[in-house]
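# step 3/5: fold
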Amino acid sequence: MKKIQRLTKRLGCILLAGVLISSALGAGKLTPHASAAAAEKGYVYYSSEDGSLYRAPTAGGTAQMISENFEGSYLNATSKYLYFFDNEDTSKLQRLSLTEPGALISNFAGDKDILFYQIEGEFIYFMDDNGVIYRSLADAADDTQIKQIANNADTEFPGFSVENGRIYYNVLKNGTNTWAASKSRDGSGNVQYIAQGAIPSYSYIHPGSSTVSVMVDIKPAETYYSLNSMVLYTLPVNGGNPKAANAKSPLDANATYSGFWSNDYYIYNKGVTVDDNDDYVYSKSKSYAIDKSGKSFQLNQSAVVSLADMGGNKLAYVGSNGKGYISTIANGKVTSTKTLALSQVTNVYNLKNGTADGQIIFYASGGAYAVNANLSLTKLNGVTWDNSSIFNDVSGIYYYNAEDNQSLYKMSADGKTKLKLTDGPVSEIYTVTTK
């Protein structure tokens, strides 16, 4: 009997867009110097050993205490406000002013029970437990800017994503049947239905330069058996007719839920199962890639447990055997694969550090390693899986230094420069912003 590790239908296990890096759908930890070259403006939000919440400039400077005895999660900041969920009541979205000294924490959107939120550009979008999606200027002084943009959203699958001019979400068509859909992000116009079924979470919505790809579970009511029920759809970024890549041969749910997006492919693990502890079992699994036309090919004899797109037809990934790989793909097949000289590899990320392709970083038993242009490795001394954080669209690696009283540091992506940001001890890095 095969069992689906169904992505949770509550916020608690749905990663908020923009808070954590999204190179992997199933990665276990996605938490989380600036150098002389790091002129980027922004703040890193972290907690001290006594539980107080601080922020410090990413380019160096004086840290500011924001709140004592902080109890919050899923933090996201604008230039004026810090948004987060109260750990005691995860349906209440909280807001704290970053510009008014001594400001008190307050509920955002009044008494609404909020299942999911996303900050995109200057707006905050959120869904309540009645299936209504709203948006507001994220820096608005009060709730008067809140506007309803969609209703009849399926609260069993609350994750959504705002991409370009549209919001992608799940809607109850005729009040009963779940459909993947999109709508103008300002609420104007009609709902565009993509396919009957559910987008499992926002992570299954993948924007490209001209199209948006969406993975839809066409049998979302089944939460125990792993059925062949996952269909890849693509549609124009500004809305238009969706095209199914594999309508006649849906992918297995476990294979898909354990998979990852790349720029041109969806990587899935054929043959993966789930044990009684809801952990993936990869012993009989191999990794495959499917493109937007529905063509599939085998990537590796091992399953993939973490993946990052390097650009230039190269994929960096971690096999379920604990090895790190870099494969080159051409004409719908793997033309070469390099096995890296690392042991017990756990994760790989593409740190966008101002270059088009970014910097690939592997985490292994010996620490963190940057991949050089010639595919050799440079160890990032002091950075480990347990003490570091990487965030989308933010340059550098943030970590607390065990050799310096757990003080907060930023290291450049190539490991060549670093800067101490604050004295320790730091216990957790929450998020980093560029504002």
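# step 4/5: annotate
DSSP finds one helix and 39 strands in the chain.
# step 5/5: archive (pending)
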